[in-house]
Write a structure and sequence with these properties.
The chain is of the alpha/beta class. About 30% of the residues lie in helices and about 20% in strands. A 3-stranded mixed β-sheet has the order 7-8-9. The protein is elongated, with a radius of gyration of 18 Å. It starts with 5 loop residues before the first helix and ends with a helix.
């Protein structure tokens, strides 16, 4: 049995975004660091997660449409933890709503949505997180059930690291090798 803890294999230096960061800046950050997503944080407190898929969904939306958040959360509101048996976070999507104030470029017809939509507008507020003393087996099972490729490592509601499927694969390979 594997006794390795997520704290043993996690990456402690997590690339994060702020709630007010534009999706253009999020896309640039994700691209520069070769990431598929990042936690949205205020200080060290995790509010949600924004992914490259979120950015692409907005970028590919029809002109005059912007992402609308499911609700306007207060920043002191706690994100919802994912629990086994509930729908996986990967299946949560924000709906697109018409934006009456969208500025359309008369020459191209483009709406500069990525500049006007923030990470908070499209982030998933359902968090997949484990404490640092969770085993890698727990982490692997959690990832399978939630259909995610990374789990946040939190302690007392603060982000301390992240564990990806590749981190788990490396740990298993080292144990077997």
């Amino acid at each position: 049995m594997y006794t390795t803890k997520v704290s043993d294999i996690m990456s402690p230096n997590v690339i994060t975004v702020t709630p007010e960061m534009s999706l253009r800046d999020v896309a640039t950050l994700l691209s520069e660091h070769h990431l598929s997503g990042a936690p949205v944080v205020l200080g060290r407190r995790v509010l949600g997660v924004v992914s490259a898929s979120d950015v692409l969904r907005v970028a590919g939306s029809p002109a005059g449409m912007v992402a609308g958040s499911q609700s306007e959360p207060e920043w002191d509101e706690e994100p919802e933890p994912w629990r086994e048996g509930s729908e996986p976070p990967a299946e949560f999507y924000t709906q697109l709503e018409p934006d009456a104030e969208a500025e359309i470029d008369p020459d191209t017809g483009d709406v500069e949505l990525l500049e006007r939509v923030s990470a908070a507008d499209v982030m998933t507020r359902v968090l997949c997180a484990l404490p640092p003393d969770a085993s890698i087996v727990e982490a692997a099972n959690y990832m399978l059930w939630a259909d995610v490729h990374r789990i946040l490592v939190t302690e007392q509601d603060e982000l301390i690291g992240i564990v990806s499927t590749m981190d788990i694969v490396r740990a298993v390979a080292q144990k077997m090798g």
